[in-house]
Specification:
The structure is a single chain. The chain is built from 8 helices and 8 strands. The protein is an alpha+beta fold and 222 residues long. Helix 1 runs parallel beside helix 7 and helix 3 packs across helix 7. Strand 1 and strand 2 form a beta hairpin. It has an 8-stranded mixed β-sheet, sandwiched between helices. Bound molecules: zinc ion (ZN). The site of zinc ion has 7 residues, from loops.
């Protein structure tokens, strides 16, 4: 099991990458990791993830109350808690405001359908939650049903949330979501997105095992 000090470093490194890759601006975004029964290491309010220090992190319980550290627990930590409650199998949660993915939600466009082979293999579709006011407990409620079925989702008008079996696993899913959103965004601007046929989708799904891909795979209900 990864030590708490290593987890602190991983969260800081993932935060730096999120800022460097424009997945967040200013003090947006938050990360957390499960470190024990009823204990979570998480980013705090008002700290820029781009230059965060290991000592900036706080420890909170499953009610969202701070147990250790300086400053306030991120107001969006309730959304992380909802993900941990629904997914006992995940160890880390990442939330960012990736611009192209958010733009797709503003336009009412979905990432659920299968257009990109890489995304089909790694995550499947990326569904969009209902809108919730950022920083409220409602933000947790709107993800509950979907996060049981996927490892990455878009938050309407707000951002994206990913879960994983490590901080970097969750972080890399966030990178993938925004990278795919950039391609879809460009294709929509060009005028059309060609979806994949069922035969190729099935072939790709079978390759998940060969690539060693784990985690949930989302498929829209038909
Ligand atoms: Zn947010």
């Amino acid at each position: 099991m990864t030590s708490e000090s290593d987890l602190r470093e991983e969260i800081c490194e993932a935060g730096r990458r999120m800022y460097a890759r424009n997945l967040i601006a200013a003090t947006d975004g938050n990360l957390s990791a499960r470190i024990g029964e009823d204990r979570y290491l998480c980013t705090r309010s008002g700290v820029g993830l781009g230059d965060m220090q290991a000592s900036d992190l706080v420890i909170a319980d499953a009610a969202g109350e701070k147990l250790e550290g300086d400053g306030k627990v991120s107001s969006e930590f309730f959304t992380h808690l909802a993900a941990y409650e629904e997914r006992p199998d995940v160890s880390a949660v990442v939330h960012a405001h990736p611009p192209k993915a958010v733009a797709l939600t503003l336009a009412g466009l979905s990432m659920e359908e299968f257009a990109l082979p890489e995304l089909v293999v790694s995550l499947g579709g990326v569904p969009t939650t209902a809108y919730a006011t950022p920083g409220t407990k409602e933000g947790g409620e709107v993800i509950r049903e979907l996060i049981r079925r996927c490892d990455a989702l878009l938050l309407d008008r707000h951002g994206a949330l990913t879960v994983g079996n490590s901080v970097f696993d969750a972080y890399l899913k966030m990178e993938k979501v925004e990278h795919a959103a950039e391609s879809l965004f460009a294709a929509h601007l060009l005028g059309r997105v060609r979806m994949m046929d069922e035969g190729e989708i099935e072939r790709l799904l079978k390759s998940r095992a060969a690539y060693g891909v784990t985690g949930k795979h989302f498929r829209p209900e038909t």
